[in-house]
Every structure is written in C-alpha cells, then in structure tokens.
Amino acid sequence: MKIDILTLFPEMFLSLKQSIIGKAIENNLIEVNLINIRDFSKDKHKKVDDTPYGGGAGMVIMPDVIYDAFNSIKTKNAKTIYLSPQGKVFNQNKVKELSKENHLVLLCGHYEGVDQRVLDEIVDEEISIGDYILTGGELPAMVLVDAVSRYVKGVISEESIKEETFSNGLLEYPQYTRPEVFLNKQVPQVLKSRKPQRNC
Ligand code: 21W
Which of 119, 137, 186, 192 has CB 3.0 to 4.6 Å from 83, enough for a Cys bridge? Predict the structure, then answer.
C-alpha cells in the first residue's frame, strides 16, 4: 500500500520509522511519502496561510498551495482523506475498509484549517480520531497509518489478526509471563500447567 501524506510538519512523522510500522516500510509492504506543503508556496517568505474572510482567530491555509501539493502526486485510483475534527470518528471497521485500498492520500490541517474550496475539490472523506481538540492532523494521520498498516498483508501475523477477530478486538484477558512470582504474586494456577509458549 502506498500512503502519501501532505503536511506542514513532515519531521513529526519520524516516529513511523520505529517498530512494526518501520519494519513494514523497510520490507516494502507499505510505502510512506511525506510531501511538505510549504514547498509549494509561491511566496518568497514561504507563506502558506492567511487571515480568514469574515474575521476570527487564527489563520487558514491557502487553497492554491494545497492544490499544487496535491497535484504533485499521481492520484489516479487514490482515496484522499482529510484529517479534521469535523470528520467521522475513526473505528476498526473503517480501518479494515481502508486497508483494502492501494493508495491513500492523507491531508493534515493545522492552525484553524484549510480553505473549504480546495477541500471540496480534492477530499473524498473526512476523518477525526475522537472528540477532543488537537493542534493538527499529524498525530491523527499517524494513528491512521499505524492502524491501517497492521491489516496490510505481511505486516503482522495472520494469527494475531485471527485472535483479534476471535476476541472481537475488545474483549481481552489478563496475560502473564515469567517470572512465576512477582512482588509475591503468583501467576494464576490454571495457567501454570504448561510453560509460557506460543499458541498451537
Ligand atoms: C483543531 C483544527 C480545531 C481546527 C471554523 C472556524 C485532525 C483532529 C484534527 C484543529 C479546529 C482530529 C474553526 C481529533 C482533532 C485537527 C486541529 C477548529 C476552528 N473552524 N481528530 N474556526 N481531534 N485538529 N477549527 O483535533 O486537525 S483529525
């Protein structure tokens, strides 16, 4: 799966190079491209935002800069998602749905938002990660990449996915490993008939 991310803060995405997702990128199971929106500023001061028509606090990212950044990526058959607090709240069904796509384009807003006209032109879907206010769409984009990547074939074991389906992704049970006694607490007796092991 290919994921293009349009952002003003590409450095924030360095953490994706860690752990399971980092391995998946190294192994070419997912390809993550970061596009710095600021690179498409037409201004000698690299300005990308301006004050809102009608007044109000904060700044709005200009439509032409976003549009040019978007058009710099080949988007035939891509699904474009705008991370926004007004979007539909992300859940595991959406994760499964998006994991079937070949190409995702993620647009991260910041400040007060993005000019509505370019959103109307390029965005297929608007997603929020929950009802609380963040400073931008970068952390939400990383949440989406992490959750969706797990469902890309080869990223995690089929077994883990199956176990998740079995437990409905919600019901969990307490887990234990060595040592057998920790702070005077024993591992539950029922689990001690066999050594800690992988399933089957
Ligand atoms: C926060 C952007 C508040 C805009 C009209 C006039 C992306 C997010 C974000 C942010 C506003 C997500 C306004 C959960 C989040 C995100 C930054 C409000 C002000 N509108 N999921 N003035 N929470 N947040 N706009 O904050 O970009 S996904």
Answer: 137
Output the six-digit token pair for 156.
Answer: 């995690």
Query: In which residue are the tokens 């752990």 written?
Result: 19
| Percent of the chain with pLDDT strictly greater than 70 | 95
Query: Angle at CA 136, nearest 5°, toward 59 and 140?
Result: 155
Ligand 1 in contact with 134 (CB < 6 A)?
yes
177: three-class secondary structure by DSSP:
coil
Name the token pair of 10: 């590409």
Distance 140 CA to ligand 1 centre (A): 11
Residue 147: both structure tokens together: 């959750």
109 CA to middle of ligand 1, Å? 8
- Spatial distance between the Cα atoms of 13 and 34, rounded to a whole number of angstroms: 8
pTM of this structure: 0.93
Tokens 């040592």 sit on residue: 179
Any bridge partners for residue 6, and if so which?
Answer: 35, 107
At 164, the pLDDT band (50, 70, 90 cuts) reads: confident
For residue 160, give every residue at least 6 positions away whose Cβ sits within 8 Å of its Cβ, in sequence order, or none: none
